[in-house]
Specification:
alpha/beta; Rossmann fold; binds 1,3,4-trihydroxy-5-OXO-cyclohexanecarboxylic acid
């Protein structure tokens, strides 16, 4: 059976396309999901692609992931910089985590330079826009291949 990757998107990412396009680009989250599905097909992975503005809902989905996901890709949006709850949930899930940001958070305000998610992520992909999600799937495929052998 294909390995499954849970792709989580946090607050305000449902607004992509119209939200600060000079920073986040013109693609919608639907466009990004389409890219992810195409990339996952190429890699032989299945994906579960979700977005929530609610920290609690994201925590719930991470808690459910041990039964359904082999790896987690997460763009936690602003919760990246604030959420110990997401960090704790990701640690407890015990799955490989890949952190994604559309923008290069290190070129932006100082408060975006700190990430709770990075404390548990295998790696971070940021600054490549929507393509970062495809790169994250490639990284997940590699990690899971290694985990399999
Ligand atoms: C973001 C960067 C965060 O700082 C910001 O709060 C977001 C999006 C990104 O994808 O570049 O909502 O995670």
């Amino acid at each position: 059976m294909a390995k499954n990757v849970l792709i989580l998107n946090g607050p305000n990412l449902n607004m992509l396309g119209s939200r600060e396009p000079e920073i986040y680009g013109s693609e919608t989250l639907g466009d990004i999901e389409t890219r992810c599905r195409a990339e996952a097909d190429k890699l032989g992975l299945s994906i579960d692609f979700r977005q929530s503005n609610s920290e609690g809902e994201l925590v719930d989905w991470i808690q459910q992931s041990p039964d359904s996901a082999d790896a987690i890709i997460i763009n936690a949006g602003a919760y990246t910089h604030t959420s110990v709850a997401l960090l704790d949930a990701l640690r407890a899930a015990g799955k490989p985590v890949i952190e994604v940001h559309l923008s290069n958070i290190f070129q932006r305000e100082a408060f975006r330079h700190e990430s709770y998610i990075s404390q548990t992520a295998r790696g971070v992909i940021c600054g490549f826009g929507a393509h970062g999600y495809e790169l994250a799937l490639q990284a997940a495929a590699k990690i899971l291949e290694v985990a399999q052998s």
